[in-house]
Specification:
Layout (H helix, E strand, L loop, with lengths): L1 H23 L4 H6 L3 E7 L3 H11 L6 E7 L3 H8 L9 E5 L3 H7 L2 E2 L15 H7 E2 L2 E2 L2 E7 L1 E5 L12 H11 L14 H10 L16 H14 L8 H9 L5 E4 L4 H6 L4 E4 L3 E2 L4 E2 L3 E10 H6 L1 H10 L3 H11 L2 E2 L8 H4 L2 H10 L3 E2 L6 H17 L4 H19 L1
Parallel strand pairs: 1-2, 1-3, 13-15
Antiparallel strand pairs: 3-13, 4-13, 5-6, 7-13, 7-14, 8-9, 8-10, 11-12
Helix pairs in contact: 3-14, 8-9, 9-17, 17-18
Length: about 400
């Protein structure tokens, strides 16, 4: 019996080893270290334009440090599975800031300020460091950020006609939403997009204490006000539908991510980019979420490869690298000094994101945010698409959010 148990245990251990090996793809790392070369593995989910710039810059660390950029389509779940396992986990990962709280609570992240002195982070835009901070500790080295942008088709809307306020936008929608055309479209019942309106009223999905605010007076006021805009948009507001309407000239203006711009330019559109309209009710512009992409360091790597980790981080602090990323894919650099360079100041998309970022709100990075996307999506559907009462729907959503957050404890 003992032999049989031992054999089964050995089989399980071997299976676990094989599983971890498949997760990480880092099987060549020990050999590289034995040859005097330290391997740093970075998980990411980025497009080739971004990774090519990173690879070119990080290759300068060879032969002392060999950096492996490994693409993970399921990065967030894979990282939850491997944690800090030295045989399976990466040394770093490149991802948005909004999952920092999840991994910080798991205890797998090293504070960036353990590696890079805090005073050196003063070179970064304040809101990118705010996004990178969880419970007073900076866990991400920001690289670039993204915000939604207000775009319009100059075939229909001239630069002079561009609405400066939401009431001007509403008037334009009333006049031009006819004959299959829409004055303005957006994903009005998707939380990421609706958040800009809610933030502009001083409402919030989740505050700094991890408390939902779906039935706060400000959020309810935003939902009520935004509803009249949604009524002048198509009932179907999924990503593909909204973008297709704009790309094909059936919608005159939209709020979308910078990733849409190359597509509409390829279609031949003369696309304009403008500041977010100011909400007449509050005097504040539509204030979308801001996503900050950057490097997070796993605690195990910081402890066992401190010198190599620091050198990689410092390579990623280069203005030249951030400017190259901006040129390659429209990424807005996180370092203030980059905006002194003509390559950046002449980039319409990047500068529009910087202007929008002045009022944008960093996406909450607390673990509780995970439950808010679904609950808020249901609330928006109830209000904008099913015509349900705002106050009743908000109260119901708030109760559900509180229960789901309680279940996380």
């Amino acid at each position: 019996m003992k032999r049989k148990g031992k054999s089964r245990a050995g089989a399980l251990a071997m299976a676990a080893s094989l599983t971890l090996g498949m997760l990480t793809g880092c099987g060549t790392q020990p050999a590289a270290e034995e040859s005097g070369e330290v391997t740093i593995t970075i998980w990411h989910d980025k497009e080739e334009a971004v990774t090519q710039v990173l690879e070119n810059a990080l290759s300068e660390l060879e032969p002392e440090i060999h950096v492996v950029l490994e693409k993970k389509s399921d990065l967030t779940e894979a990282l939850k599975m491997v944690g800090n396992d030295p045989k399976a986990a990466p040394d770093m990962y490149l991802f948005a800031h909004d999952k920092i709280g999840v991994y910080a609570e798991m205890g797998i992240l090293a504070p960036i300020t353990d590696i890079i002195p805090e005073e050196e982070l003063a070179a970064y835009m304040d809101n990118t460091i705010e996004a990178a901070t969880y419970k007073g500790t900076v866990y991400q080295l920001p690289i670039y950020y993204e915000t939604l942008l207000f775009m319009y088709n100059r075939l229909y809307m001239s630069d002079e006609e561009m609405p400066a306020t939401t009431e001007e936008l509403y008037a334009y929608m009333q006049e031009n939403t006819k004959g299959g055309h829409y004055g303005f479209v957006e994903q009005h019942s998707t939380p990421y997009y609706a958040a800009g309106w809610i933030n502009g009223f001083g409402g919030y999905l989740l505050n700094d204490q991890g408390e939902p605010g779906l039935n706060s007076p400000e959020t309810e006021e935003a939902l009520t006000y935004h509803k009249k805009f949604a009524e002048l948009m198509p009932g179907e507001t999924e990503y593909a539908t909204v973008n297709t309407l704009f790309k094909e000239g059936m919608a005159h203006a939209t709020i979308a991510g910078p990733w849409l711009i190359p597509t509409v330019r390829e279609s031949g559109m003369d696309v304009g980019i403008a500041p977010m309209p100011v909400i007449d009710e509050t005097g504040t512009p539509i204030s979308p979420y801001m996503g900050v992409q950057g490097i997070q360091v796993l605690r195990n790597a910081a402890e066992k490869k401190p010198e190599a980790v620091e050198k990689v981080l410092r390579a990623l602090m280069s203005d030249e690298l951030l400017i190259d990323l901006a040129k390659a894919s429209g990424c807005a650099p996180a370092r203030e000094s980059c905006y002194e360079q003509e390559n950046i100041t002449s980039d319409e998309v990047v500068m529009a994101m910087k202007e929008t970022a002045e009022n944008a709100v960093p996406m909450p990075n607390l673990p509780e945010m995970d439950v808010m996307w679904t609950v808020t999506g249901t609330l928006l559907t109830d209000v904008n698409m099913s015509g349900k009462d705002v106050a009743e729907s908000a109260d119901r959503a708030q109760e559900e959010a509180l229960q789901l957050i309680e279940n996380m404890k």
